[in-house]
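The instructor's notes for this session suggest beginning with a concrete chain rather than abstract definitions. Hand out the sequence below and ask the class to guess, before any prediction is shown, which regions might be ordered.
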Amino acid sequence: MAEVQSKKMGVWLLTLFVAGTIVGSGVYMLPATLAGFGSIGLVAWIITAIGAVFLALVFAKMGTLMPVTGGPYTYAHAEFGNYIGFQTAYCYWIAAFVGNASLVPAIIGYLSVFHPNVQDHSLIIGLCFVWLFAIVNLFGVRGVGIVGAVTTFFKFIPILVVAFLGWKYFDSSNITSNFNVSGQSTMHALTFAAALTLWSFVGVESATVPAGDVINPKRTIPIATITGTLIAAFAYIITCTSIMGMIPMKELATCASPFARAGEIIFGTWGGYFITFGALFSLIGGLNAWTLLETQVAMAAAKDGLFPQIFAKKNKHGVPAWGIVITTLFISLILILTSTMDLIKQFEIFILSATTMQVIPYLYTSVAEIIYMLRHKKMAANFKTHIFIASVGSIFSIWAVMGAGAEVVYFVMLFILISIPLYAIVLYQKQKREDKTSQR
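After discussion, reveal the predicted structure:
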C-alpha cells in the first residue's frame, strides 16, 4: 500500500502541478499579445482572474463529488450521458494538444534571446521539445509531477524579480496614455482581450484530471485547485502590469520575448539571459504538464467505450502510451502546417482556438454541478452558494466563447459538428465489442 501511495501526488505536489500547468506561456507571451489592445488588457486580465476563480471553485467541488480520473469528461458524462461525455472528451483533447502546440512558438521566442538563428530552425527544435516530454510522460505520472514541481519552482524566480524590481522602471504614462489602441470599441476590445487572457487560466481543472493518481482526492483536489489558481492570478496581474509600465506599447507589441526585455531593462544584458532561463523553465513545465492532461481525459472516455480503445491502453508505467504518441503526432502536424507564421501570430491563433475548445468542457462542468445540486438538493450543503458559483462559471464560459471572434467560433463549430459522425463510429465499434463479448 505504501508503495502505491508513493507513486501518487499529494497536496503540495498537486498544487505545484496546478500552478505549473496554469502559469505557462500566458504570463510570458501575453503581455506582447495584449499590447495590441493597450492597457485595457489589464482590465481583461482582472475580470478573467475573477472568472477563473469561480471555475476553480466549480472544479474543486466536482472533484470532491466525483474523485475519479477524467475531470471535465467524468462530470459531463455522469450528468448529461454518453454523447455530451464524448463531446467533452473530444473538445478537451483537441484543446489540450492545440494548446500544447502554442507553447512551442513561445519556447522558440525565448530561445532566440540566446541565439537569433534559433528561429531559422524553429520547426525542428519545436518537434524535439514536444517529443522529449512525450517520452518523459511515458514513464509515469509521478515523474511528470516531479518535473512540474522543479520547473514551477524555477519559473517563479523571474516572475518575482520582474514583479517587484520592475516597478523602479515603471512609467505610468505607458499605461494611462494607451488604454485602448485596438481601433475597436471598449467593449469589443475588452471581450476579445478577455478571450486571450482566459488562456492564461486554462488548467484550473488540472488537479481533477489525474484524480485516480492523487492521495486522498476529496481533500487534496480542492486545496490544490484553489491555491494553484490564486497563485497564478497573482503572478499574472502583478507581472503584466509591471511589464506594460516598463516597455512602451508599440515596442511591446512586436516583442517575442517580453520578459527578457524587462530583464535587460532591470539588470542589463545578463539580466535578460537570467529572465529568459526562468521563462524557458516555465514553458517547458507547461509542455510537460499538458502532455499528461491531453491523454488522461481521452483515456477515461476510452475506458467507457466513448473514445477509440487505443487511448485506454496503458504501458507498464500505468500511462496511456499510445494516446501520448498519437496526440504528439497531431501536435507535430499542427506545427508543420503553421511553421511559416510569425511567432506572435502563431501563438495567438493557437491560444484562441485552444481556449474556445477548452471553454466548452468548462461550460458543461458548470452546468453539470447545477444539475447535480438540483438532483441532490436535500443532501447538498450550501446548496444556493454552489448554484450561484456554477451559474457564474456558466455565464463566464459563454462570454469567453463570444470573445474569440466569429472566425475562431466558426472553426470550433465545425469541429463540434464533426464530432457527431465520429460519435456514431465510436458507438458502432462499442456495440461490436459488446456483441462479441455476449457471444462468448
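Then share the key points. The first helix runs from residue 2 to 6. The mean pLDDT is 83.
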